[in-house]
Amino acid sequence: MAHAQTAPSRYVVEAYDIHKSFGDFEALKGVNLTVAPQELVFIIGPSGSGKSTMLRCCNLLEQPTSGQVKITGEEITNRSVDINKVRQRIGMVFQQFNLYPHMSALGNVSLALRKVKKMARSEAEDRAQAALQRVGLADKAGNHPTELSGGQQQRVAIARAIAMEPDVILFDEPTSALDPELVGSVLEVMRELRESGMTMVVVSHEMRFARDAADRVIFMDGGLVVEEGTPERIFTDARSDRLKSFLHSVTGH
Amino acid sequence: MERFLDQFFNLEIMARYLPDVAAGFLVTIQLALSVIVTGLLFGLALAVVRAFQVRPVNWLIILFVDLFRALPPLVILIIFYFGLPFIGITMSAFVISWIVLASVLAAFAEEIYWAGITSVNRGQWEASRSTGLGFTQTLFYVVIPQAIRMTIPPLTNRTIAITKNTALASVVTVEEMLTVAQTSLAYAANTSPLTMAAIGYLLIFFPLTMASRWVETRYAWKR
């Protein structure tokens, strides 16, 4: 029984000794990650460092080869756990937005409310409308994704995640596919979420955002956590050569 | 010119055989609509079942699909019509024609739907699954609606091409339009009934091509 193993936990997300291999390639070589309630954890690192894979292991979009993942104390890597139930509590925002092109913004946000939370259409749409309002797109509810800018699409995707009232939201490079002038609106929404106390794990190259918004920054390279600490400590007091050269390459100085 | 008109547009003969050809026209329409509706639904059902990736089931589907795509419809029709009675199954020629043509359409439609399903971006699956929707829910609410919209143009093409094969039912004595036209042609020693049949086919398939164009634009979304 799933609930028998559920003990109160101080953490929203716990991942212990996560390994993940794709064929011969070892993407994760034993990564630990804990995220406390209301914490914003940033994961940075060069491409191929395993940071996105690590994030995707948190809701089992990638099944870890070995290791343990717990969400609010419930071990979701246990085969007997109904993953669809757990995923309701873990929002995810993707680099490519992945909005459903055949549905309006409102349809995108309300689908899971209706089909997973089994809400009546009117109730689901009220809640979806409120979520769209929160990301500043109340007036775009009837628009299809193709009628929206990239930044607006990503905000709809964030609304889709927050409408489920999850315990944590995972952001997988949420601004990497956006034109520079559209990045700000998405970061603004993320900042508002953070201030409202949402627990967030963010994989991103937005170093300035990491600096002012993150509680903790994790630097990954080669499938391992190399350094972790406060943004202050990571960005001004890098100890490993790998972090130093990474910061040098992304900030250009 | 006069001989041509007399042979192909003989109004007197046309008037005489109009009731017969009209009756055949109705049979052709019935057969065509039955084939379209059941063929497209059966094809979709096969594609949906295939999406669940149960090995032995998928082999059967692929076997069925490849067989019915490889054989000429006329060959299948004749085998069924003359073969089924030998194993104790007797059905009217209309029903056999319906089943055969619907199966051929289903076979092609399955491949088209399947191509649509597999071409839906993996990110769509991931986004849907990440909100807690299950595999089946994702398939029905997210993937298939997109797959169907993507496949409407090839699907309508194929539907029209296969539905025109209702004329083959004339070979197995179904009193559809071509059968009637040919019989009338023999009695009258004049090809005007065939002209009427040709007009009849246009009356059926022109609206069908126009309807498919309407469906294409209706369900297209801007990319």
Describe this structure as you would to a colleague.
The complex is a heterodimer of chains A (253) and B (223). By secondary structure, chain A is of the alpha/beta class. Helices cover 37% and strands 23% of the residues of chain A. In chain A, the strands form 2 sheets. Chain A has a 6-stranded mixed β-sheet with strand order 6-7-8-3-9-10, with helices on both faces. Chain A has a 4-stranded antiparallel β-sheet with strand order 2-1-4-5. The radius of gyration of chain A is 18 Å and the shape is globular. The N and C termini of chain A lie far apart (54 Å). Chain B has 223 residues and is an all-alpha fold. Chain B has one domain: MetI-like (MetI-like fold, Orthogonal Bundle), CATH 1.10.3720.10. Helices cover 81% and strands 0% of the residues of chain B. Chain B contains 9 helices and no strands. In chain B, α4 crosses α5. The longest helix of chain B has 41 residues. Chain B starts with a helix and ends with a helix. The model of chain B has no long low-confidence stretch (mean pLDDT 92). The interface between A and B is medium-sized, with 27 and 21 residues.
List the helices and strands and how they pair.
The complex is a heterodimer of chains A (253) and B (223).
Chain A: H1 2-5, E1 13-22, E2 25-35, E3 40-44, H2 51-57, E4 66-71, E5 74-75, H3 83-87, E6 90-93, H4 105-115, H5 121-134, H6 150-162, E7 168-172, H7 180-195, E8 200-203, H8 207-213, E9 216-221, E10 224-229, H9 231-236, H10 241-251
Parallel strand pairs in A: 3-8, 3-9, 6-7, 7-8
Antiparallel strand pairs in A: 1-2, 1-4, 4-5, 9-10
Chain B: H1 2-8, H2 11-51, H3 55-70, H4 73-83, H5 93-119, H6 122-130, H7 135-163, H8 177-188, H9 192-219
Helix pairs in contact in B: 2-5, 2-7, 2-8, 2-9, 3-5, 4-5, 5-7, 6-7, 7-9, 8-9
